[in-house]
Amino acid sequence: MCCLQFLRGSSKPSHDTQLTTSMVQSNGENAQRNQRGLHQIRSAIQTRSLLAKKRVENITKSDVKGFFTRNAFVLLTVAAVILGIALGFALRPYKLSYREVKYFSFPGELLMRMLQMLVLPLLVSSLITGMAALDGRASGRMGMRAVIYYTTTTVIAVFIGIVLVLIIHPGKGSKDEFIKQPIEQINPADAFLDLIRNMFPPNIVEACTKQFKTQYAKRVVHVTMTVNDTVVTLNGSQVITREEMIPVPGLVNGVNALGLVVFSICFGLIIGGMREKGQPLKDFFDCLNEVIMRLVAIIMWYAPIGILFLIAGKIVEMDDIADMGGQLGMYTVTVICGLLIHAVIVLPTLYFLVTRKNPFVFIAGLLQALITALGTSSSSATLPITFKCLEENNKVDKRVTRFVLPVGATINMDGTALYEALAAIFIAQVNNYDLNFGQILTISITATAASIGAAGIPQAGLVTMVIVLTSVGLPTDDITLIIAVDWFLDRLRTTTNVLGDSIGAGIVEHLSRHELQKDPEVGNSVVEEVNKKPYRLICQENECDRERPVDSETKM
């Protein structure tokens, strides 16, 4: 019996044998699964290769001609940027005088003047018609979504800037290699109050040409002394006086965009609430907006020429490029990395997560506006081109663009917020200041708030950065350390600002699609043929031969 039990027990597989067998089986299944996955990938690559080969073989002269016709603006603008850079560096050895550089840059100056000419009527008409086309609830929800988007992207941009500057540490070294330049001194409290004052201009006509700005004047104070319980005022050779700087109200040239935005939003909401009575005004501003957009279409043909001379003239004018080495070069690289991360990774990811559509197809339709922003260095001057790209290329509802873009061009400055936070910590590193967590948090909050006050004009970030530096006790004079490269970085952060505004319009439209469908407006909503695509870019050439409906955009 014992022998039989032993033999019977030995015939059963042991626990280790079962475990080994199961591991072998699982490994075999994993290998088969991996092989199936690789086979699917190979099949997909072969299919795509065959489709691409078939498309290349079927290309005709008319297809090539049609491609260049559809993308003429984009191709001409890209060519203008390349030629501008090449021409600028080719002319640098000739050491042109200041007058010669200004003459050379004159075509670019004309483009800036043309675009700035359209900013004011476009800003007012687009906001008024956009707000009038929506009911109170729809505009409130859309505004809340836009504000949440603006706040989220700005906070993310500031966080990226702070993390990069702390990791790369570009300010390590000596402060002696920098060349200081004079800069206007501004009190942070006065700058904040000026922001509030400009929101409510006393004269709406004056707001079209002037902004309120606190200026400073010297005041002589006579000291009165009490001697033997008698009050006497010293005079003659015994007069004791001292000077103090006092704030006085002043005006500077420039469109008060913030005040016009506040006025236009309120004006448009009231017109929309008046229904039939407000229809004549509504039709007037809608017609004005259409006229401005047609003018933009004309100016766009001149834009490549202007951008070419703007970029070439700036390259000829800039100081010795060798000065950008060392700390200043590392600072420039850090800012560029931060802007690229925000523009290429963060913003497209947000767009995809919300809309589930391919963000790079959306960005491709904005290429003309982005290159214009790079050339003009002004989000406000780029506003007409941004409208045209969003409404005609990306088919964003006009009621959304007319509300989101003007507000975004005024208060949504992702690139500026990133730059201000990064530059403040860079200046602290140059001065060997160790910032604690509380000071870094203060910089992040202040940079977010200060970017709202940065008007969409060139190099406005240098002015608002005084507020950021003062908030943590850093020397405001050291802003001059980074002026040498600000002309270049200003163009990159302006491009980031324009991209952030545009993606915000796409996200807000997607989130507000139900309200927009319930409240259709003749002449204010974009009605397009379902199967007709507005444009066809290089990135879309891998699509199927048959046209897809607009609603079924390529998914990532």
Automatic annotation (TrEMBL):
<keyword id="KW-0472">Membrane</keyword>
<feature type="transmembrane region" description="Helical">
    <location>
        <begin position="403"/>
        <end position="428"/>
    </location>
</feature>
<dbReference type="Pfam" id="PF00375">
    <property type="entry name" value="SDF"/>
</dbReference>
<dbReference type="GO" id="GO:0005313">
    <property type="term" value="F:L-glutamate transmembrane transporter activity"/>
</dbReference>
<keyword id="KW-1133">Transmembrane helix</keyword>
<dbReference type="InterPro" id="IPR018107">
    <property type="entry name" value="Na-dicarboxylate_symporter_CS"/>
</dbReference>
<feature type="transmembrane region" description="Helical">
    <location>
        <begin position="146"/>
        <end position="168"/>
    </location>
</feature>
<keyword id="KW-0813">Transport</keyword>
<feature type="transmembrane region" description="Helical">
    <location>
        <begin position="440"/>
        <end position="457"/>
    </location>
</feature>
<dbReference type="InterPro" id="IPR036458">
    <property type="entry name" value="Na:dicarbo_symporter_sf"/>
</dbReference>
<dbReference type="GO" id="GO:0140009">
    <property type="term" value="P:L-aspartate import across plasma membrane"/>
</dbReference>
<dbReference type="GO" id="GO:0098712">
    <property type="term" value="P:L-glutamate import across plasma membrane"/>
</dbReference>
<protein>
    <recommendedName>
        <fullName>Amino acid transporter</fullName>
    </recommendedName>
</protein>
<keyword id="KW-0812">Transmembrane</keyword>
<feature type="transmembrane region" description="Helical">
    <location>
        <begin position="360"/>
        <end position="383"/>
    </location>
</feature>
<dbReference type="GO" id="GO:0015501">
    <property type="term" value="F:glutamate:sodium symporter activity"/>
</dbReference>
<comment type="similarity">
    <text>Belongs to the dicarboxylate/amino acid:cation symporter (DAACS) (TC 2.A.23) family.</text>
</comment>
<feature type="transmembrane region" description="Helical">
    <location>
        <begin position="328"/>
        <end position="353"/>
    </location>
</feature>
<dbReference type="GO" id="GO:0070779">
    <property type="term" value="P:D-aspartate import across plasma membrane"/>
</dbReference>
<dbReference type="GO" id="GO:0005886">
    <property type="term" value="C:plasma membrane"/>
</dbReference>
<keyword id="KW-0769">Symport</keyword>
<dbReference type="InterPro" id="IPR001991">
    <property type="entry name" value="Na-dicarboxylate_symporter"/>
</dbReference>
<feature type="transmembrane region" description="Helical">
    <location>
        <begin position="295"/>
        <end position="316"/>
    </location>
</feature>
<feature type="transmembrane region" description="Helical">
    <location>
        <begin position="255"/>
        <end position="274"/>
    </location>
</feature>
<dbReference type="InterPro" id="IPR050746">
    <property type="entry name" value="DAACS"/>
</dbReference>
<dbReference type="GO" id="GO:0015175">
    <property type="term" value="F:neutral L-amino acid transmembrane transporter activity"/>
</dbReference>
<feature type="transmembrane region" description="Helical">
    <location>
        <begin position="72"/>
        <end position="94"/>
    </location>
</feature>
<feature type="transmembrane region" description="Helical">
    <location>
        <begin position="114"/>
        <end position="134"/>
    </location>
</feature>
<keyword id="KW-0325">Glycoprotein</keyword>
<feature type="transmembrane region" description="Helical">
    <location>
        <begin position="463"/>
        <end position="489"/>
    </location>
</feature>
